[in-house]
Amino acid sequence: MKGIKDDGSAIQVMSVDDSAISRKMIKKALEPEGFVICAEAGNGKEAVDLYPKIKADIITMDVTMPIMDGLDAASAIKKINPNQKIIMLSAMGDDDIINDAKSRGIEDVYCKPFKAPELIDRILKLM
Ligand SMILES: [Mg+2]
User: Considering its fold, how many domains does the chain have in total?
Assistant: First the structure.
């Protein structure tokens, strides 16, 4: 069970994506390995509002979302907690987005469609 830490507790993941199907796919990829989806949000603003009430080891963050996109949401969350680990899940792999994400302190950018084993490896690399 890759989602279980050495102390026996589960790795907590917040999943942020405007697509309910994407959120379901992330859940389906992670839960069989013991990860816990501790929170979900459907846009960046929802994520930022929810963030102070939860404790996530990792946030998976979509880029393109209504109201507030993933880049701005990641910046706002990093302002609250600079140590929060965030993986950007981008449908577009262009350098602009990757560089923008890196400049905001986002730890990793992974291009969709994701593969469950690779998403898990990338999460574990940040732990
Ligand atoms: Mg989206």
Answer: 1
- Ligand 1 mean position, distance from CA 45 (Å): 13
91 — phi, psi (to 5°)? -75, -25
Alpha carbon distance 40, 98 (integer Å): 23
Cα of 6 to ligand 1 centre, how many Å?
A: 33
Which amino acid is residue 5, in one-letter code? Answer: K
pLDDT computed for residue 94 by the predictor: 83
Mean pLDDT across 31-41: 98
Instruction: Look up the pTM and report it.
Output: 0.95
* Domain presence at residue 79: yes
Specify the CATH number for the domain of residue 85. Answer: 3.40.50.2300
Domain that holds residue 106: 12-126
Classify residue 99: in a domain, yes or no: yes
Q: Return residues with CB closer than 5 A to ligand 1 (ion).
A: 18, 62, 64-65
Evaluate whether residue 112 is within a structural domain.
yes
